[in-house]
Amino acid sequence: MATNRTFTMVKPDAVEKNYIGGILEKINGAGYRIVAMKYTRLSAEQAGKFYEVHSERPFYGELVEYMSSGPIVAAILEKDNAVADFRTLIGATDPAEAAEGTIRAAFAESKAKNAVHGSDSDENAAIEGNFFFSQVERP
Ligand code: CMP
Asked: Structural domains in the chain?
């Protein structure tokens, strides 16, 4: 059964460019409620662990280096059909292919520096939320 939560990160490129407010506005505007949120910075080891599923991909090293290059904002979001609707809201991984009005079309720079992360399944949403937030931090 689908859950009503997903997990997101505002990535280092978007934090650096002061896009946190603009991105959160779009997230709230799409009907998501923020149930947990944290401004933090990942070590290379933590970024490597978070993206472990991509460890065999050619871009893994670049991804880990980039995701630990500056602060990020991590959040758990709540809404009906949270995971699928959020993927639609953020748009394609490559901003050049992201539909107009999506977060990546508005704020992303490239396939790697793509402004936001969004969970790809309910199972990963739970795993990723648990990675950043303890039980008392995610009511
Ligand atoms: P994200 O949704 O966080 O999940 C995996 C990330 O890997 C993705 O966003 C991109 O930031 C990154 N990524 C995916 N494809 C590429 C690529 N071809 N080159 C560099 N980074 C990529």
From this structure: 5-43+71-137 (3.30.70.141)
